[in-house]
Amino acid sequence: MKNDYKDNKFKELLDKLQQESWQLELLISGFAIFGLFSALEPLERMGQEASASESYTKTFFVVAAISCIVLIVNLIIHVVLRGLWIGAIGLRYVSGEIDYEALNYKKRFTNHLKKKVGSFDKYIGSLENYCSILFAVTFLYLFYIISFFIIFLVIFIAGSFFIESGIFPEIFGMFLLGIFAIFFLFLSLFVFIDFITQGYLKKVEWTSFLYFPLYKIFSVITLSFLYRPLVYNFLDNKFGRRLLFILFPVYLLTFYVTTLHNVRSNFVNNQSYSTINYANNNNYLNSLTKNENINKAAIQSKIIEKPFLQVFIPFRKKMEDIIINQNLDLKSENDKRGYSSSLFSSNTSNTSKDSLQSKYLAAFKKAYLLKIDSLQIQSDFIITEINNQLGFETVFPIHTIKEGKHSLNISRFIASKKTKKIENEAVIEIPFFYYK
């Protein structure tokens, strides 16, 4: 069928579909809520993996998780309201309209209820409006989130060009990035003002003249041309505008509630890393859950009963940059790091690969310093995988140390950004108990 929007038959089809759309809404909402809840855990795990390896993709997983939460909140509200709407229709079939006279209330209450509660059909109609608009605004807010993070993606790409590309000197590149970021965020502020005022800059003659080129540029940058018809269809309706503003505080309240936690002590609390006085389970291999990523380093357990200590340090891109900067013979003209297709990757001989890895591990050993309490440890590392996380592992004897509480101190040598001198930087301190 030819979908000519001016054709009467097509308009009749749309009228029929919008009357029956509630069934599809409920079906899609149910499947979507189930799928979104199922996606939260994998997204959290992949975000942890990206964060542990200091990958730039961690921002993508953060945006995806936020989008899932927004969709879940909206769709749950939609399902509750749509369920209430179905219940109201069922009740109307049995009971009809509200008979205020049959309630036999005094005139004062009867008049008040007629004014405030009104017709039962009006109540059903209001529920229908809220349900239909809420289902549409759910996906509109998803586009808003994507547009918001695209703004920061542009600044990130600019940072890669000005600083990491090597085209400009580091200080000059940072200066150019600062100028660009301030200018771009300044322009973004005008777009945001127009958004929260629901198009005020488009309503005044002189501001509309100045804002029009900026509007066209940002409509491409933020991909708003994809969802603009939805936006203006909401804004030309008072009910739709009101709902858009009602939902925003709901998101803020939901975000605030998710950050609430009970502070039980001024001195004893949970920490995300281990210290001499705090043992985080993430830093002990036997305490890791399935697919949980190690943040900085881990040993086999909190209580050591064997005469050796197993240490695992996860791989990070920043770590490799430090090693290459301190060992220029490892610097390759063809840097293969980043995303690439296996169809176009060249195979390196095992002998050559082993030789390069041996040099790399030797450089890694020089860059990292391991101590038990104040005793320096000499150890050799191998490359391995734990919980699907790539990293470096070493095992060394500890039978000569005394029984009781000890601390593994891991630090690395890094060039200072100010003085360019090699300095010792603390990485983590992991407490453990040793008993033979």
Question: In words, what does this structure look like?
Answer:
It is a single chain. The protein has helices at residues 8-52, 58-95, 107-116, 120-164, 170-196, 205-221, 228-235, 238-258, 317-326, 350-367, and strands at residues 298-299, 303-304, 308-314, 368-372, 375-377, 382-386, 389-397, 404-415, 422-434. The chain is of the alpha+beta class. It folds into two domains: 8-258; 281-330 and 352-434, Sandwich (Immunoglobulin-like). The strands form two sheets. A five-stranded mixed sheet has the order 2-9-8-4-5. The protein starts with 7 loop residues before the first helix and ends with a strand. The model has no long low-confidence stretch (mean pLDDT 80).
How would you summarize the topology of this molecule?
Elements: H1 8-52, H2 58-95, H3 107-116, H4 120-164, H5 170-196, H6 205-221, H7 228-235, H8 238-258, E1 298-299, E2 303-304, E3 308-314, H9 317-326, H10 350-367, E4 368-372, E5 375-377, E6 382-386, E7 389-397, E8 404-415, E9 422-434
Parallel strand pairs: 2-9
Antiparallel strand pairs: 1-3, 3-7, 4-5, 4-8, 6-7, 8-9
Helix pairs in contact: 1-2, 2-4, 4-5, 4-8, 5-6
